[in-house]
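User: Can you help me understand a structure? I only have the sequence.
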Amino acid sequence: MGGSPDQSIWKCDESVWDSVENEYVRPTISKSEWDKAALALANANNKAINAIFCGVSTAEFHKISHVKTAKEAWMILETTYKGTKKVKDTKLQMLTTRFEELKMINDESFDSFYRKLNKIVIGKLNLGEKIEDAKVVRKILRFVPESYRAKVIAIEESKDLDEIKIQELIGSLQTYELELPSHKPSKSLVLKTCTQNHQ
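Assistant: Let's start by predicting it. Here is the structure, written out as tokens:
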């Protein structure tokens, strides 16, 4: 099985597609009494079902393997796809909103902020929607706290934001974070530690 059912169907003739659009009704008379028209309709339906079966995944095949007409199989797949697409679209919208609203708070480490951001990026990628690296870079630079402002300005003035690699930016901000006063031990703490060590 492979490809998509619509691609498989369109490779067949018009009568096959007609059997998807119009419900095939099997004649009640004995098959030996069918005329050429009845036989042609039955063959078109069989070809359509076969084309659909060949174009779906194993999971989808199990949902339609019991049906007798191409139209019924198609309707089941259409309903399934629309339901799946609706769920996917809802998840993507939720991730988009989270991406737009995410900010690094003042007492948060850069690593914590980036983990949350990267989880959103991977989530969208898994659903088939990639967030461009340049957009992630701009997101990071725009929503780090004011304490990073000097570094952000330096990066914006010296780098092409469309070309800078995300890992390069992360490394640069992680290094800068270590130099921030909030990440350095105070003199009183150092003195207290030294005093305790000499007692």
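Now, to help you interpret it: The longest helix spans residues 70-101. Residues 185-195 have pLDDT under 50 and may be disordered. Let me know which part you'd like to focus on.
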